[in-house]
Design a protein that fits this description.
InterPro entries: HET, HetReg/Transcr_Mod. Helices cover about 50% and strands about 10% of the residues. The protein is an alpha+beta fold.
């Protein structure tokens, strides 16, 4: 089962990850007459074409009638798991207001916990769906966030992405007492950046700066550091990162990461509850980097162009800076009549009598 993106007039299919497929499709074909371009010309042309296509990936997904996301090979167990999730009665919610999502049914946590505790298929369903390597790819974040209509496919089973997000929210807020259920909840929370980011992007309750996206995607993986940055740019909705586009100036790993770090630092004043101490620490971290992200001299530019940004730990520095700015900060908030529920990257905190504490 290939990946596919269905547009208004056509459908495109990918048998592997989207980013690697685009790179493959962009490779110049051997022209007629038997002549073959030089290797350097091929490489240069391929990179430029690939960058141009990366720049329109957001548009492709936003305008697609339907996006089909393949989670990998399935079996009878995964098919049952997807069907089971679609049959669970989940909570209904009112429209978003301000920075919160209001839960229409205040008692749904108790109802969900009781239903899950009595049904052994719950933990099995989570094992079959949430432990797949599919969720680790950084490109998944953009694909699922910007697509208007996504269907997840695994073997013979299928599930709408919005249903899985709703399921994840219910699990995250349930207060399980049984050990097996708590372990299942942990697996859902480990994938929180994927489904939480989808909510943040769609509802716009928290403007997404590049730094916030780097923080949420800390556990995501990319084939190279350039892809890691490019995959996030399509979701930036606030700050200097909106001006950064995949082009010939962002084709080198370390150079691209250094530019991203400078943008993250300039966007610090946009961070909610701006903190001078955190800001100063973030700047110190950038200055201490091996390739000095703040140094734009010609000598440093030559070094960064020949570096992939991994061995020099520039990618790690970007993640450190994001962690400094956002660790412990609420990323998403839900409220009931009796409590406020804050979502962090790997945990959920409940505050009783939220009106008094918020």
């Amino acid at each position: 089962m290939p990946h596919s993106v269905s547009g208004k007039t056509s459908t495109m299919f990918w048998s592997t990850s989207l980013s690697s497929s685009i790179a493959k499709r962009a490779t110049p074909q051997r022209p007629g007459g038997g002549s073959t371009p030089s290797a350097s010309c091929k490489t240069r042309t391929t990179k430029l074409r690939r960058l141009a296509q990366l720049g329109i990936m957001k548009y492709i997904y936003e305008t697609a009638v339907e996006t089909i996301a393949w989670l990998g090979p399935g079996d009878r167990s995964s098919t049952r798991a997807m069907k089971y999730i679609t049959q669970i009665p989940l909570s209904t919610r009112d429209d978003l207001a301000d920075d919160t999502l209001t839960i229409a049914n205040d008692d749904f946590c108790d109802d969900i916990e009781e239903n899950f505790a009595l049904d052994p298929r719950f933990a099995k369903a989570i094992d079959d769906i949430f432990t797949r390597e599919y969720w680790d790819r950084v490109w998944v974040l953009q694909e699922l966030a910007v697509s208007q209509n996504t269907t997840l496919v695994c073997g013979d089973g299928w599930l709408k992405w919005d249903q899985l997000v709703e399921f994840s929210m219910n699990v995250a807020m349930a207060d399980f007492s049984r050990r097996r259920l708590r372990e299942a909840k942990r697996k859902v929370m480990d994938k929180q950046p994927v489904w939480l980011l989808s909510l943040l992007y769609r509802h716009g309750t928290r403007s997404l700066t590049l730094a916030r996206l780097v923080y949420l995607s800390k556990a995501s993986k990319a084939t190279n550091s350039v892809d890691y940055v490019h995959a996030l740019l399509g979701m930036v909705t606030r700050g200097e990162g909106q001006r950064m586009r995949p082009n010939k100036t962002t084709k080198h790993g370390c150079e691209t990461l250094c530019k991203a770090i400078r943008i993250m630092l300039r966007d610090i004043p946009l961070t909610s509850n701006f903190n001078e101490t955190r800001s100063a620490k973030a700047w110190r971290t950038a200055k201490a980097g091996y390739h000095k992200p703040l140094d734009k001299s010609s000598d440093m530019q030559r070094r960064t162009k020949s570096c992939k940004g991994i061995s020099c730990e520039t990618l790690q520095a970007a993640r450190w800076i994001a962690a400094i700015l956002f660790t412990g900060r609420s990323l998403y908030t839900m409220k009931t009549s009796g409590q406020m529920i804050h979502f962090y990257r790997r945990s959920v905190e409940r505050l009783d009598s939220w009106a008094e504490n918020w």
